[in-house]
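[09:14] KT: can someone run the structure on this one? pasting the chain below
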Amino acid sequence: MKAVWKNTVIAESDDTVMVEGNHYFPESSLKREYISFSNHKTSCPWKGQASYYSINVNGDLNPDAAWYYAEPKEAAANIKGRVAFWKGVQVS
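[09:31] RB: done, C-alpha cells below
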C-alpha cells in the first residue's frame, strides 16, 4: 500500500491494518521529511484520543492530514504505532 499526496509517496508498506475503511500504516513507513507535528487532537469513543501530523510537500502544506492514536483504548490496540491518512491523500 502507498499513501500519496501531490505525486509524492508519504508512506509505503505491505503491512497495513484496516479499521473503519482506513489503512493504518506502520509509523516506521512514514517518509519523515514530509511529516510535521500538529497540535490538533480529536477523540473517538472506542479508539481514544487521536493526534495529528501535517504533510508538507515542496512547500505545499496539508494540515492535519494524518492521524494516529499514541495510546489507543484496548479495543483499538491493533493500531498502536500506526498512522492513517485523509484530506486528499490517496491510499492505494
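[09:33] KT: thanks! The CA atoms of residues 41 and 55 lie 16 Å apart.
[09:34] RB: yep, looked fine to me
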